[in-house]
Sequence to fold (203 residues):
Amino acid sequence: MKCKIMKSVFLGSGLSIVSLLSVVNASVLTGNLTVDNEYNVYLSTDDNTQGILVSADSSWYESEIFTATLAAGTDYFLHVEGIDFSGFEGFLGNFSLDSADHLFSNSTAQLLTNTIDWTVSTTGWSNYSNPSSYGDNTAYPWYADTRPAIDVISAAEWIWSVDDTAQHVYFSTAITAVPAPSTMAIFGLALAGLAYRRFKKQA
Fold:
């Protein structure tokens, strides 16, 4: 009787794993941003490596939208290279993920430019520190008129290096892959297998 029960548990665990394995999907990253004056956006699997170019623009007075696909189970770093010519400088944006398979550094699927969840460097993809805030989307001299898709209410901030004279800066934030449910399921199946063997010997 015990063997039959354990066989049922074992088979049920196996079917659960098959179904959970199909849950792991790629995530789509969507970004809406602008940089005064130019930017390049990269996706990297190493915070000290630039990565693959996914977006670029030089029209600082309006925001641009990009999308990129993230492989399931892979951790990434979102890198934004900001270039300022002179005068005012800043990076403003909001970002989202379409699935629970990846999360931003704030442990959610939504991320704004702020001084907490981003780091910045003036020397390249290393030696990061916290950025400074230069106001929200309504701040002088940018205002929000040509960037309506970056929600004023969302509290996205214009950020830059503490050194506001730096004309070339490197922003970074982490995007972490959420462990697949199948990992825990396989562990559970292994335990069920051990229990089955033990009950079988006792039968």
Observations:
- Residues 181-202 form the longest helix (22 residues).
- Residues 2-22 have pLDDT under 50 and may be disordered.
- Residues 27-177 form a domain with the Jelly Rolls fold (CATH 2.60.120).
